Amino acid sequence: MNAHLSRSPSSEKVVRVLSGWLMLPVTAGLLALAFYGINYISRNDPEIWPAILIPIGLVPLFILCCFGFFTLQPNEARVLILFGSYQGTVRHSGFHWTNPFNRKLPISLRARNFQSDKLKVNDKRGNPIEIASVVVWRVADTAQACFDVDHYADYVRVQSESAVRHLASAYAYDHGEENEMTLRGGGEEVQHDLQKELQDRPGKAGVLVDEARITHLAYAPDIANYMLRRQQAEAVIAARQKIVHGAVSMVEMALSELKDKSVVNLDDELKAAMVSNLMVVLCGESEVHPIINTGTLYT
Question: Which CATH number characterizes residue 162's domain?
Fold first, then answer.
């Protein structure tokens, strides 16, 4: 027989209990009946004292019934457990009464959120980065939250940090390959993957993740300066590529216009000189000072 049997998750069962307003006069009637019986027997037939035990016995019954009352605010629930057996979950807000022997575990159904600490992890390329996220979650299945995990709030926090680490290691921080999604440029797609990753993990605790977003993303301090210089160099290269591309287009246009309009006939040597001069003018960073040639074109 396989020792590692898969355990089926718990399932919530919503139940309705008696109204507290209905049981309140009944419970109060027990106390009134007990005092009336004690008073009646003691006044009218004091010799048969064993009979007084009957109304006296109503007093502990009244006290026991008082433990069955409880109230529920909106977005709250109570999990009912009778001698270790799950009886159901009460979700309807109001004043209620149930079996006094039921253990009533309160669970909030309101949305909660927390921001994780800054985690230092390695991205897909092995670069150390810092990442943090904010998670908005709520309890969806009270039975799973109570019976399938210990301290479901702590479970959600730990599993959320694990999901963030896994997400960070699955993507590059930035400058990925062609059409590759990165943490920095992924935007909503990365947020969606993070939320899906979070839902798969804490979902075992009956928790529903409403929203998950990355709130902090940066290179680790020990390589931040190096990566900044790399980004600056890549930005300079990208700018140079655009400048050269524009300059080549302008030179091509100038030669084409001169030829089409027959402004001047240039041989290959003069074209090469003109191209060289135009590229220097268009690609240079400093201001250009032209030199007027008073001789021929070849001197």
Answer: 3.30.479.30
> Which residues 6+ apart lie within 8 Å of 34 measured at CB?
55, 56, 57, 58, 59, 62
Query: What is the number of domains present in the chain?
Result: 3
Please identify every stretch of the chain with a pLDDT value under 70, giving residue numbers as ranges: 1-8, 41-53, 175-180, 186-187, 221-237, 239-240, 247, 257-299
| 3 state DSSP class of 190 | helix
Q: Report d(CA 165, CA 87) in Å as an integer.
A: 39
What is the SS3 assignment for 127?
coil
pLDDT tens readout for residues 56-111: 777 888 888 889 999 999 999 999 999 989 999 999 999 999 999 999 999 999 99
Q: Using CA atoms, how far apart are residues 257 and 262, in angstroms rounded to an integer?
A: 8
User: How far apart (Å, rounded) are the C-alpha atoms in residues 269 and 259?
Assistant: 15
Looking at the domain assignment, is residue 299 inside a domain?
A: no
CA–CA separation, 289 and 126 (whole Å): 49
Q: Where are the beta strands (DSSP E) in 123-242?
A: 128-139, 207-219
Distances (CA, A) of 194 to 90, 116, 159, 178, 190: 32, 13, 12, 22, 6
Is the backbone of residue 46 left (phi > 0), alpha (psi -120 to 50) or beta?
A: alpha
